[in-house]
């Protein structure tokens, strides 16, 4: 699929620290003209309220209206689903999105995806992405990793998932937390094959070791 063609991306936010990554990714996807299916766990809503200035409504419809307004999305560009909304398109391979991103991803969610439990729409959407051979990106946020976490990541990587831990780089000489967030969001967009202007690429003339 061409990089400049609009895509449908499922974005799943779970209760790990790092809500800023998921929110910035959501804002960028909408700004760049892509359609987003959003799923959010209850712990994710608590983390957002703790780590950011956003106050996210609990119900899917209200959440959809909230993010549509604050991120200036087009009508129907964003759809928010409940965790038990089994008639949502992403619950089936016939309605799967072009790619699925779990950002941030708790190690509990990582485990559930690795074993294919599909107990709710969050887990089911990731499971469908795997079985349909669609891009699945897991932005795991935990430290240190236990052997269980590492085994689950290896298992999913062997299935084709992209394990993209929330480890921002510093060679861009970040000046703020927003710069660190943008580093990670840029890497996610790269793996989604979505063009962006968040930061220069390695080797760009604007980067210099003497800066």
**Radius of gyration, in angstroms, nearest whole number:** 17 Å
Biggest sheet statistics: 6 strands, parallel
| Weakly predicted, low-confidence segments | none
Beta-strand proportion = 5-15%
Percent range of helical residues: 25-40%
Sequence of strands across the biggest β-sheet: 3-2-1-4-5-6
Per the CATH scheme, the topology name is Rossmann fold
CATH superfamily: Flavin prenyltransferase-like
Total number of domains:
1
Number of strands: 6
- Reading the helices and strands in chain order gives EHEHHEEHHEHEH
* Strand-pairing-aware structural class: alpha/beta
| Average pLDDT figure | 94
How many separate helices? 7
Essential attributes:
6 strands, 39% helix, 6-stranded parallel β-sheet, 7 helices, 211 residues, single chain, alpha/beta, Rossmann fold
